[in-house]
Amino acid sequence: MEEKTRKNKIPKAVVLLSGGLDSTTVLAMARDEGFACCCLSFQYGQRQSIELERAKETSARLGAVEHLVLHIGLDAIGGSALTGDIAVPKGRSLEDMEAGIPKTYVPGRNTIFLAYAMAWAEVLGADVIFIGVNALDYSGYPDCRPEYISAFEKMANLATKASIEEERSLTIHAPLLHMTKGEIILKGLSLGVDYAKTHSCYDPDREGVPCGECDSCCLRLKGFADAGIEDPLSYKNRKHNDNF
Q1: How far apart are CA 127 and CA 157, in angstroms?
Q2: Which residue, of 51, 98, 109, 205, has the greatest Cβ tally within 10 A?
Q3: What topology does CATH give the domain 11-199?
Q4: How does DSSP assign 101-132, residue by residue?
Q5: How far apart are CA 214 and CA 232, in angstroms?
Q6: How many CB atoms lie within 10 A of CB 226?
C-alpha cells in the first residue's frame, strides 16, 4: 500500500521564479506537465522590489503549492548595474547586446540560485528544478548557456545525499533554452499566462513602470512584436523600440 501511494504521488519540482516573463512562462509549463510546483525567489539586493511582488502574485495565481523567498546580499559584493551604483545601459541595439557581457550581469547569480534550489529540492524530495534561462534572446550572460546548465546538473548529482545514498538523479530543466522570446510568449499565452502581471525592466520608476529602454525591455518588446501581439505593459519610453 505504501509503495502504491508513493508511485501515485504528484511529483514536486522547484521552480526558480523572478516574476519576469520567462520564469512565469516556465512556471506555467511546469504546472502543465503535472508537477506540484514549489517556487523559489530571491531578494538578493536588486535595485527594485516590484519583481518580488509579481513573483508572489504569480505563484499564487498559478497554483504553486509553496513559495519560498530567500534573502541573500549580493549587493554587498556588487559588480552589477542591478545591485550596485552602476548605470543601467539603455538604448542599445541588438548588435551592442551581442558584443559582450553587459553591466547588468550579476556575478555568480544563477550558480547561487541553483545551489539553493538544489538544496531545497533535496529536502522536498523533488528531482527536477525548472529555470527560465534562454540562449537565443539573451543579453550575453555566461550562466544562460546550455553548457553551463549541463555542467551544473552534473555537479549537483555529485553533491547530494539523495544522489549518493538514494540513487536519485536531479534534472535541471530549462525548457526555454532554445526558444526565441516570441516563441516563449506564444507558449505562455497558450497556457493562460497573463503577461500584464509580469515584470521585466532593469530600471523601473518608483511606481514600477518599466523604462522601455534597457536591454530587458528591448528584448521583451521585440518578442511581443515578433509574436504579432501588443505588450500589455505601459512604458515610460518606447520610441527606441518602435524601430528595434
Answers
A1: 10
A2: 51
A3: Rossmann fold (3.40.50)
A4: --TT--TTHHHHHHHHHHHHHHHHT--EEE--
A5: 18
A6: 15
pLDDT tens digits, one per residue of 96-137: 887 888 899 999 999 999 999 999 999 999 999 999 999 876
Which contiguous run of DSSP H or E holds residue 37?
Answer: strand 36-43
The size of the chain, in residues, is 244
How does pLDDT run across 37-94, given as a tens digit for each residue? 999 999 999 987 899 999 999 999 999 999 999 999 999 999 999 998 899 999 988 8
Residue 57, amino acid: E
What are the structural domain ranges in the chain? 11-199
Q: Which residue has the cell 543601467?
A: 88
- pLDDT for 60 equals 96
The cell for 135 is 540562449
Specify the pairing of strand 171-173 against strand 128-130.
Answer: parallel
Specify the pairing of strand 128-130 against strand 66-71: unpaired
Coil/strand/helix, residue 64: coil
CA distance 25 to 193: 7
